[in-house]
């Protein structure tokens, strides 16, 4: 997509014969590379998946396609008589009960957070997500299947600078007190890290790690976070089904916990899989901003609703953020440089 040539100092390519000779000689010299900008990324080729929606139980086909620079991530309901595009944005979130739903002009897409999390973890900026029903397929309940799909299709750099939203001052949202307290906040940070604490007062969940930190600069999203599955409690299943939710859920895509144990025969994928899934969800919810954040996120018992409230609170205060690019990628924080490693 781009060659070394464009990074030669300009006097090597200043036109005229002398310049060309100089350029030829330059090829035999050690390569002096001028630092390239940190670039946007999209897919190399399209890729498809078929599955069922976790809540709707509906069969759905998903096609992920490359998109031009500055397109962002756009969901397209291709099953409607007139297809409707829903570009992701914090303000496009219309419902946060059990999952993050985005909508535009009456068209909706439910449960976008695990796919969005994979895009955040792999640093994908531009993507079309064609979808044939109103819910993203749950696949294995984590974002590992999306990571696999995206990496198999290949990720390419594009000739446009990656735009970040840098947080300039703390922003916090808070709700309830005592046993009902929950909060989420963003603090300035040159990089992207998240810390999450849960408190379920449930013997199975409480016996695993309840707090986890993930730093994109030092950790590996694919290894440390992507495989954490969504979870549910048997005592909630009846209530959910009565509300038309969780119809596509089962032991192959949800960690199911009764009062005493995990019911999935293979047990947990990580010792602290529950709280790691909350980090996975938060990364997806926050990436609905449409741009990667430069910030430290921390949260206590937050969820889809509060994560979205945090983004709206941030955007409502123009003095709390700015958009930045890195013309010299070496100035970019760790974790944003190389495209994520393959499996
Ligand atoms: Zn989730």
Helix and strand arrangement:
Layout: H1 16-28, E1 39-43, E2 47-52, E3 59-66, E4 73-77, E5 84-87, E6 93-95, E7 101-104, E8 107-109, H2 113-122, E9 127-131, H3 144-153, E10 155-161, E11 164-167, E12 171-175, E13 182-187, E14 192-197, H4 203-206, E15 211-215, H5 221-224, E16 231-233, H6 234-242, E17 255-257, H7 273-287, E18 293-300, H8 304-316, E19 321-324
Parallel strand pairs: 4-9, 11-18, 14-18, 16-17
Antiparallel strand pairs: 1-10, 2-3, 3-9, 4-5, 6-7, 7-8, 11-19, 12-13, 13-18, 14-15
CATH architecture grouping of the largest domain = 2-Layer Sandwich
User: Mean pLDDT, as a whole number?
Assistant: 89
C-alpha-based Rg, rounded: 22 Å
Q: Identify the quaternary structure here.
A: single chain
Instruction: Supply the CATH class of the largest domain.
Output: Alpha Beta
Topology order in helix (H) and strand (E) letters: HEEEEEEEEHEHEEEEEHEHEHEHEHE
Query: Helix fraction?
Result: 10-25%
Structure report:
This protein has 343 residues and is an alpha+beta fold. The protein folds into 2 domains: 34 residues, no CATH class; 293 residues, lpxc deacetylase, domain 2 (lpxc deacetylase, domain 1), CATH 3.30.1700.10. It is built from 8 helices and 19 strands. Helix 2 packs across helix 3, helix 2 crosses helix 7 and helix 7 packs parallel to helix 8. It starts with 15 loop residues before the first helix and ends in a 19-residue tail after the last strand. The N terminus is likely disordered. The site of zinc ion has 5 residues, from helix 2 and helix 7.
């Amino acid at each position: 997509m781009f060659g070394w040539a464009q990074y030669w100092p300009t006097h090597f390519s200043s036109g005229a014969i002398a310049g060309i000779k100089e350029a030829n000689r330059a090829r035999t010299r050690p390569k002096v590379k001028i630092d390239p900008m940190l670039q946007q990324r999209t897919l190399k080729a399209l890729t498809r998946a078929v599955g069922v929606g976790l809540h709707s139980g509906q069969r759905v086909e998903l096609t992920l396609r490359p998109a031009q620079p500055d397109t962002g991530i756009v969901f397209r309901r291709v099953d409607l008589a007139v297809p409707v595009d829903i570009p992701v944005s914090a303000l496009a979130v219309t419902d946060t009960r059990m999952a993050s739903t985005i909508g535009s002009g009456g068209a909706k897409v439910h449960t976008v957070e695990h796919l969005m999390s994979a895009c955040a973890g792999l640093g994908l900026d531009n993507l079309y997500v064609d979808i044939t029903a109103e819910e993203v397929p749950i696949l294995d309940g984590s974002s590992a299947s999306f990571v696999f799909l995206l990496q198999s299709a290949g990720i390419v750099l594009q000739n446009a600078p990656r735009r970040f939203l840098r947080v300039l001052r703390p922003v916090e949202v808070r709700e309830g007190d005592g046993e009902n307290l929950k909060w989420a906040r963003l603090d300035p940070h040159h990089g992207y890290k998240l810390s999450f604490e849960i408190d379920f007062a449930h013997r199975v969940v409480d016996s695993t790690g309840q707090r986890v930190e993930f730093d994109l600069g030092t950790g590996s999203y694919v290894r440390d976070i992507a495989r954490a599955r969504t979870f549910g409690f048997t005592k909630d299943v009846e209530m959910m089904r009565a509300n038309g939710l969780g119809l596509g859920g089962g032991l192959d895509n949800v960690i199911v916990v009764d009062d005493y144990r995990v019911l999935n025969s293979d047990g947990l994928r990580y010792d602290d899989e529950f709280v790691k899934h909350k980090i996975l969800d938060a990364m997806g919810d926050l990436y609905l901003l449409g741009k990667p954040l430069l910030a430290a996120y921390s949260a206590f018992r937050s969820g889809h609703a509060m994560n979205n409230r945090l983004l709206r609170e941030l955007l409502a205060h123009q003095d709390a953020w700015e958009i930045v690019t890195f013309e010299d990628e070496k100035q970019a924080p760790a974790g944003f440089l190389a495209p994520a490693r393959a499996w």
